[in-house]
Specification:
single chain; 254 residues; alpha+beta; Beta-lactamase; 39% helix; serine-type D-Ala-D-Ala carboxypeptidase activity; beta-lactamase activity
Length: 254
């Protein structure tokens, strides 16, 4: 089902998503069912970690490394805004850091992976921006491996390109993002994507929040044998972000 020329249906969706940019895509038909404010630019925030994880996944494949290989956390691991308790010089498995970045959006995990990959967050960020252009994400600029920082921007259509790339080339990353929780230090921490456990057919991807005012999500679900991708950027709250996804899915992918 597509909004198409149904003006009433479109007005209902627009009224239900008054501030954010939004998009719903159906894979089999390669069809955007609905888009709203698709050229408006927002900080990607932690959606950045999707591409960070793709580059790490590629490096593991290139070098034939065991994902459980341990690396030492950087001495300045606590420089980022996070609270997962990774200690400087602590040896943590690459797979654990990837889970932390994918499931609970741990900023220090993303930075540690970037340091391991490229020697510094700055060098890794340059690679992120180079890869974004290769993927056709012409409106996107990343500012760090984690999604923190200034001077970053993206659009819902660029994020759709990234999600499609993850599904096509990095199924391991899609599977990580679908995990319900991250186990660390004897505790279970739920996925930041609350729709995983509440929306029928949900199968993954990632949230991103910046300063509490920018609330993003790239969401995937399978219904009726179809893969759907919903992108919402710039919602004022996490609740309104999730409700926008729910509205898109219930209206166009029942």
């Amino acid at each position: 089902m597509s909004v198409g020329d149904d003006g009433d249906a479109r007005r209902r969706l627009e009224a239900g998503i008054p501030e954010a940019s939004a998009l719903l895509y159906r894979e089999r038909q390669d069809e955007i069912l609905f888009s709203l404010r698709e050229s408006r630019r927002y900080p990607p925030a932690s959606l950045t970690k999707l591409l960070t994880l793709c580059l790490i996944d590629e490096r593991l494949e290139e070098r034939g490394l065991d994902p459980a290989t341990r690396l030492a956390m950087p001495a300045d691991v606590e420089r980022v805004d996070s609270w997962w308790g990774f200690a400087p010089a602590e040896r943590v498995g690459i797979d654990t850091l990837m889970q932390a970045a994918a499931v609970v959006s741990a900023n220090e995990a993303a930075n540690a992976l970037a340091d391991w990959h490229s020697g510094s967050a700055e060098a890794f960020t340059r690679l992120l921006n180079e890869r974004a252009k290769v993927l056709g994400m012409e409106a996107t600029t990343f500012s760090s491996p984690s999604g923190l920082g200034r001077h970053q921007q993206t659009t819902v259509t660029d994020m759709l390109r990234l999600v499609r790339h993850v599904h096509a080339r990095h199924p391991r990353i899609a599977q990580l993002c679908a995990r319900q929780s991250f186990e660390w230090n004897g505790r279970s921490h739920p996925n930041t994507n609350r729709l995983l456990s509440s929306l029928p057919g949900a199968c993954g991807m990632k949230t991103g929040t910046l300063g509490g005012r920018i609330n993003n999500i790239a969401f995937t679900a399978r219904r009726g044998g179809e893969l759907y991708v919903a992108i919402v950027l710039g919602a004022p709250t996490k609740v309104s972000r999730d409700e926008a996804v729910r509205l898109l899915m219930e209206s166009l992918a029942p």
